[in-house]
Amino acid sequence: MNKPSQRTAADMAPEQKVKFYQKGTFTVGNRLVDADSRNVQSSMDRSNAITSGHRACQGCGEALGARYALDTAMRVTGGKMMAANATGCLEVFTTPYPETSWQMPWMHSLFGNAPAVASGMQAAMKAKGKTDTRIIAQGGDGGTVDIGFGCLSGMFERNDDVLYICYDNEAYMNTGVQRSGATPGGARTATTMPTDADHPGNVFGTGKNLPRIAMAHNIPYVATASVAYLQDLEAKVEKAMSFKGARYIHVYVPCPLGWGCASNATISLARLVVETGMFPLFEAEHGAVTSTRPIRQRVPIEQYLKPQRRFAHLFKSPQGQEAIEKLQAMCDRNIKDYDLLRETEETPA
Amino acid sequence: MSLPTTAPFAITVDVGTSLNNHTGTWRTERPVYLDRLPPCNNACPAGENIQAWLALAEEGDYEGAWHEIMKNNPLPGIMGRACYHPCENACNRKDIDSAVSIHAVERFLDDESRKQGWVPRVPSDLSGKHILVIGSGPSGLSAAYHLRRLGHAVTIYEAGPVAGGMMRFGIPSYRLPRDVVEANIKRIEDMGVEFVLNKKVEDIAAEKEAGGFDAVFLAIGAHLANRAYIPSTDASKILDAVGVLHDMETAEDKPMLGRRVVVYGGGNTAVDVARTAKRMGAEEAIIVYRRNRDQMPAHDFEMDEALEEGVIVNWLTTIKEVGDGGKIMVEKMELDDNGKPQPTGEMDELEADTVVMALGQNVDTEFVGRLEGVEIKDKTIQVDNQFMTGHPGVFAGGDMVPSERTVTVAVGHGKHAARAIHAWLQADSYIKPEKPEIADFDKLNPWYYTDAPETVQEMLDVERRKSTFGEVVEGLDETNALYEARRCLSCGNCFECDNCYGVCPDNAVIKLGPGKRFEFDYDFCKGCGICAAECPCGAIEMVPEEI
After folding, report:
1. How does pLDDT run across A285-319, given as a tens digit for each residue?
2. From A55, which residue of chain B is nearest by alpha-carbon distance?
3. Partners of residue B523 in chain A, C-beta under 8 Å
4. What are B318's strand-pairing partners?
5. Are B206 and B345 in contact (CB under 8 A)?
6. I want to staple B358 with a disulfide (CB 3.0 to 4.6 A). Which of A118, A161, B235, B270 is the partner?
7. Lowest mean pLDDT among A257-261, B11-15, B123-127, B200-204
8. What are the backbone dihedrals phi and psi of residue B460, each rounded to the nearest 5 degrees, phi first?
9. Which long-range CB contacts under 8 A does B147-151 form with residues at least 24 apart?
10. If you write DSSP's letter for every residue of B389-444 in order, what string do you get?
11. Which fold has domain A47-337?
């Protein structure tokens, strides 16, 4: 347990050298590679941990991110796993009483206690001798970075054998789009309305960068992922499941309703946030960054902001323009800190 | 007070599944799979389904790919070399890096077919109809091939000693090696098409009657050289391009062009003759053309190759007079405001051992004109949309009818005419299927295609090109051909990348298995449109629901 590793997500799911795969390298499936090397999401027998009929909005990024992550974990564990869920969209849209979309053991308790519940489930499995049953805890950004933060920090600090996955859509969407600790500066939410020149959306604070906070706990594995980079996301979940102890994955999931974007823009925004440098994709082990995913086609932050109504006001005032510049500066900072523009022979998708 | 122990502690209902909740009712737009027309297919004059055969080739099914080509084009070896590939000019990939080298893959597949001995599929039952094809150039061969594939007996009458037409007498061997031409023709002969060589037809109606043919397809091409009046004291020094290229192919003594050769004209034939002259040992091969390069009808790459080989061009120049001892008077031209060349009066002198006129070609309409009902306009034979002349049962195609005169157009004519003849024999007419919507670049999501520039075909060294008739452009090996085929974007046609299946938040895309594509589950599809937005090749369309 806890031994350092030099592996990266890329070599967990070996990406075949591109040479012969001009087509399909970045797609969900690729019929030109061996069946074993293909993504879980491309297989006909993926577990569909969340089945159809759930009540997520059209184009929900969270429904997608959760299925991506959990189907991969189901594949890795051979179906021997359970999940604890914080209160939030994911909980609400999958389980309107008495229906459920979950095709795996799943438990919901309170908004703030999912990490603690997961720790308890893990202890219970241990007590029953079912040590091969793995535990996942999950929640939205509100339940994770704000309300459940104390429990989460405790789970990290005790190094309980739980993978915690945060689906980050940057506000409390379930209750009507209120600001959370993960809401970006400048964004309009129900509680950060751009009322006048002095209040151009959410304030720019110092931010609550939970992946970095998780790393500060020196837990075995921390990673960021985006629903637009499926292969990368699956590789990170697979990698996370290869560790024992506390692990954390922060998945970026666009919310068409809360962000005021088209329902078909979910994947493209999840791509743009990475290609701008706003949301760097990386992995860290025991507190140190071990891999980052370079930008493939760099774009300015405006391209990411414009399709979203939560940022529309920024394009209408000098203060808004300042906010855009601040956001661009954050991207530039990330690009520098994570060396996102380095030359690579080829980029894993 | 105590509760009865059999009663539940609270009101509960059994666990249900969300599958009872048909979220499809939320939808205002529905995604629909469709096959759009790839721009390459749309541009192909022979109507090849390029996207389909590249898809087979990229999986390594070269035989399948070759058969797919052969559905439309019986001459892939020739097309892979001599076609000016309008498909590649239309290719969407050029907006990402560079067009797929379609011709090179086609050429590779033909090489493979000859190595492996693949044969075209021919029906065993004959229709009992017998069709006469006059002329064995690309359109005649294409018509014969397709008629044979439709179950008819076919006989070709060829006036010359060998089959091939302009593929032999128009395109020099350094662009189109003769063994390739022969092999492609032999394959048609092996299908049971009868070739009668050295058979010049004078009276079409009589031949039709005598041979008991049910229909005739005329494909005699355009091989009469255009003339321009140029005062000349020494006519022996003036040759025509068609004659030169023809003699290169057949004559015992190759044409003597001399050390200095002037070619008059700006088309591909002019370039061909200049390059041929170089190979025959001319020190100077000068093209005299009255317009500039932008207006030149010759293809860019051919002009580039010619310049590399040392061919010289005098732009904006006309020949006024050919005098004694090969002294040629030329006049400089300039373009007027309408881009038309106008004489300047400024004269110059050139010396040449030979002057070759490459001023275009005409159809020998004389014997065709004798046939009742045939209409001749602008020195070409007029045909209807069935490729039928005014004489019932006599069809015509290729260079002799109004068209762009290329090998590929001719092959397309042959195919279309074969289908029209087949329909006519059943007292019907051939209606071309309507084209689906074209898959333009803006229908694609190019993010999903990795950067992979075109494979460069090696070329013969320039020095060797100047002195030999070896093929200038080399072919691809299997590795390169596979790479090239896999660069295809599959525009408008599902290539089963699983994107729609993966990106649906509602699991409303059903994967049917390899080769069977996908289906939407409209019970659950909420109509978010992510599948359509993320489809790399534009094979999904969002259609408004009727509400």
Report:
1. 999 999 999 999 999 999 999 999 999 999 999 99
2. B23
3. 52
4. B331
5. no
6. B270
7. B11-15
8. -65, 150
9. B147/B217, B147/B418, B147/B421, B147/B422, B148/B122, B148/B188, B148/B191, B148/B192, B148/B193, B149/B120, B149/B121, B149/B122, B149/B123, B149/B191, B149/B418, B150/B123, B150/B418, B150/B419, B150/B422, B151/B123, B151/B125, B151/B126, B151/B127
10. -SSTTEEE-GGGSSS---HHHHHHHHHHHHHHHHHHHTT----PPPPPPB--GGGS
11. Rossmann fold (3.40.50)
The CA distance from A336 to B9, in Å, is: 61
Residue A3, pLDDT score: 38
> What is the pLDDT, as a whole number, of residue B133?
98
Q: What is the mean pLDDT of chain B?
A: 92
Q: With left for phi above 0 and alpha for psi between -120 and 50, is residue B393 left, alpha or beta?
A: left
CB within 8 Å of chain A, chain B residues 135-154? none
Q: What is the pLDDT of residue A146?
A: 96
Residues of A in contact with B486 (CB under 8 A): 20-23, 32
CA distance B359 to B290: 11
| Contacts with A27 from chain B: Cβ below 8 Å | 448, 497-499, 536
Chain B residue with the nearest C-alpha to that of A35: B514
Q: What pLDDT sits at residue A38?
A: 87
Supply the ipTM of this predicted assembly.
0.91
Tokens of A236: 């990170």
Please give the DSSP secondary-structure letter assigned to residue A50.
B
Instruction: Decide which of A138 and B12 is more confident.
Output: A138
- pLDDT for residue B356: 93
For testing contact with chain A, the best of B26, B30, B498, B534 (most A CBs within 10 A): B498
From B29-43, B216-230, B343-357, B448-462, the region with the lowest mean pLDDT: B448-462
Per-residue pLDDT reduced to its tens digit, B290-313: 999 999 999 888 899 999 999 999
Q: What does the pLDDT look like over B269-297, one tens digit per residue?
A: 999 999 999 998 899 999 999 999 999 99
The pair of three-digit structure tokens given for residue B122, joined into one six-digit string = 């021919």
- Is the four-CA dihedral A138, A142, A145, A151 of positive or negative sign? negative
Question: What percent of the residues of chain B are helix, what percent strand, and what percent coil, each to the nearest 5?
Answer: 35, 20, 45
Q: Is the peptide bond before A220 cis (omega within 30 degrees of 0)?
A: no
DSSP state string for B469-493: -S-SB----HHHHHHHHTT---TTS
d(CA B226, CA B359): 6
The answer to whether residue A136 scores a pLDDT higher than 60 is yes
> How far is Cα A141 from Cα A89, in angstroms, rounded to an integer?
10
User: Hey, what are A296's tokens?
Assistant: 């493939």
| Closest CB to B505 among A60, A98, A271 | A60
Residue A206's pLDDT is 67
Phi-psi region of B378 (alpha: psi -120 to 50; beta: other; left: phi over 0): left
Mean pLDDT in residue range B14-19:
91
- Strand segments (E) across chain A: 81-85, 99-100, 106-108, 134-140, 162-168, 221-226, 247-252, 282-285, 288-292
Does B327 have pLDDT greater than 90?
A: no
| pLDDT at residue B30, as a whole number | 97
In this complex, which of B513, B533, B536 lies closest to A264 when CB atoms are compared? B533
Q: Which residues contact A48 (CB under 8 A, 6 or more apart)?
A: A67, A71, A103, B507
Report yes or no: B235 at the A interface, CB cutoff 8 Å. no
Is residue A73 scored above 60 in pLDDT?
Answer: yes
- Would an 8 Å CB–CB cutoff place B269 in contact with chain A? no
Cβ distance of A264 and B529 shorter than 8 Å? yes
Q: How many residues does chain B have?
A: 547
Q: Please, which pLDDT band fits residue A14 given cuts at 50, 70 and 90?
A: very low
- Minimal Cα–Cα distance from A19 to chain B, Å? 7
Q: Residue ranges of the domains in chain A?
A: 47-337
Strand partners, A289: A284
In the numeric block, which tokens belong to residue A199? 């209040």
